[in-house]
TrEMBL record:
Reactions the enzyme catalyzes: glutaryl-CoA + oxidized [electron-transfer flavoprotein] + 2 H(+) = (2E)-butenoyl-CoA + reduced [electron-transfer flavoprotein] + CO2
Residue ranges of domain Acyl-CoA oxidase/dehydrogenase middle in the record: 144-234
Pathway annotation: Amino-acid metabolism; tryptophan metabolism; Amino-acid metabolism; lysine degradation
EC code(s) of this entry: 1.3.8.6
Keywords: FAD, Flavoprotein, Oxidoreductase, Transit peptide
Domain Acyl-CoA dehydrogenase/oxidase N-terminal: residue ranges: 29-140
Main EC class the enzyme belongs to: oxidoreductase
Record domain Acyl-CoA dehydrogenase/oxidase C-terminal: where: 246-393
One matching Pfam family: Acyl-CoA_dh_1
Keyword match tRNA-binding: no
Protein name per the record: glutaryl-CoA dehydrogenase (ETF)
Record carries keyword Flavoprotein: yes
Length: 400
């Protein structure tokens, strides 16, 4: 056999070039690569050196919100009102690089930009857009998104939170659960039943009767904040109503935006896990040789790269469709279901290559594997996306 030279575990760029077996980098434009590289550099400088400590302490770095604004990733895909107005593919690449740092940090960008800002941008009045979006895009105001309830997760139509009219005002009562960021947010976009169906409201978090409870301790998404919201006779002015949002179409449109980001983001967690395993396998010796020289280790690495490359092709195809205006919710479900499921498998397999050291937080796969359990659950569980696809294939709804 020909003599070969093992790859240098410290030359990450060379390892990435070798791992791009299909040459997918060439499918990106110069602007797309520039966006990716800019966000990657931010993650390398601001997130990687600190994330193990943040995760261990269950600390969300809210002080980075203005830095995310300067980076241009808050409401990245929205136009006007101080928003960056970048393409869907650029936003996807940013989500991938952010989640390579940590799912919790990508989730912040998603909650802020896709859920809260996206709802105001699509369904709000001009006054609401001008009041909130520029400051949210700059990271000066943090928003949250209240849809899920203790007894209404996969079935939001069964929500019990209710807003009743009182003259020109609205009175809000009920609760929401698993709501990101609400304890540090200045506003919450809240969806509630009314006598006119489901409507959306911009609710100031300092309104009398608005209370938050942080959900902890958690074994996943520890560098993030999830809360329960409680509304006790919260009085809202008529101007709090999102005038264009009527029915579940409003929150579902926001969920599809968030799900799109997950299609890309999960690949970041998977890629980071794979790279940690690859570098470890090249650096660690057993029986006198790098463990990368063993057939079983190479099989694991190859299987990871195959799924990473397939997932990247899927994400890019979905992103191009979104930019072309042809993307369907069913296609997003396929992407979310596949890429998160494969990302979890990659993170778990990567941990095995790290051996016992793989349970230490100085190595990322165990953290990514834990985080991805949350990513797998929110914005539609595996079961929900499976049934969405099943209904598409058969024409039969199996949700009840």
């Amino acid at each position: 056999m020909p003599t070969v030279t093992p790859r240098d575990p410290d030359n990450l760029e060379a390892l990435r070039d070798a791992s791009d077996v299909l040459g997918l980098d060439a499918l990106l434009s110069d602007d797309e690569r520039a966006t990716r590289d800019r966000v990657r550099a931010f993650v390398d400088a601001e997130i990687r050196p600190n994330i193990a400590d943040w995760f261990d302490r269950a600390y969300f770095p809210a002080e980075l919100a203005p830095e995310f604004g300067k980076l241009g990733v808050l409401g990245m895909h929205l136009d006007g009102y101080g928003c960056p107005g970048r393409s869907a593919v650029e936003y996807g690449l940013a989500a991938l690089e952010l989640e390579a740092g940590d799912s919790g940090l990508r989730t912040f960008v998603s909650v802020q930009g896709s859920l809260a800002m996206g709802s105001i941008h699509r369904w709000g009045s001009e006054e609401q857009k001008n009041e909130w979006l520029p400051r949210m895009a700059a990271g000066e105001v943090i928003g949250s998104f209240g849809l899920t309830e203790p007894s209404a997760g996969s079935d939001p139509s069964s929500m019990k939170t209710f807003a009743r009219r009182d003259g020109d005002d609205w009175i809000l009562n009920g609760s929401k659960r698993w709501i990101g960021l609400a304890s540090i947010a200045q506003l919450a976009v809240v969806w509630a039943q009314t006598d006119d169906g489901v409507r959306g409201f911009i609710v100031p978090t300092d309104a009398p009767g608005f209370h938050t409870t942080v959900l902890e301790p958690k074994g996943s998404m520890r560098a993030s904040i999830q809360t329960e919201l409680h509304f006790d006779e919260v009085r809202l002015a008529a101007s709090a109503l999102l005038p264009e949002a009527k029915g579940l179409r409003g929150p579902f449109s926001a969920l599809n935006e968030a799900r799109y980001g997950i299609v890309w983001g999960a690949l970041g967690a998977a890629r980071d896990s794979y790279e940690a395993a690859l570098r470890r396998s090249l650096a660690r010796e057993q029986f006198g040789v790098p463990i990368a020289s063993f057939q079983l280790t190479q099989q694991k690495l190859v299987n990871m790269v195959i799924e990473l490359q397939k997932g990247a092709l899927l994400a890019l195809h979905i992103g191009r469709a979104k930019d072309a205006g042809t993307l369907t919710p069913t296609q997003i479900s396929l992407g979310k279901l596949n890429n998160v499921r494969e990302a979890i498998a990659i993170a778990r397999e990567a941990r095995t290559i790290l051996g016992g050291d793989g349970v230490l937080l100085q190595h990322s796969p165990i953290r990514h594997a834990a985080n991805l359990e949350s990513v797998r659950t929110y914005e539609g569980t595996d079961e929900v996306h499976t049934l969405i696809l099943g209904q598409h294939l058969t024409g039969i709804g199996a949700f009840s």
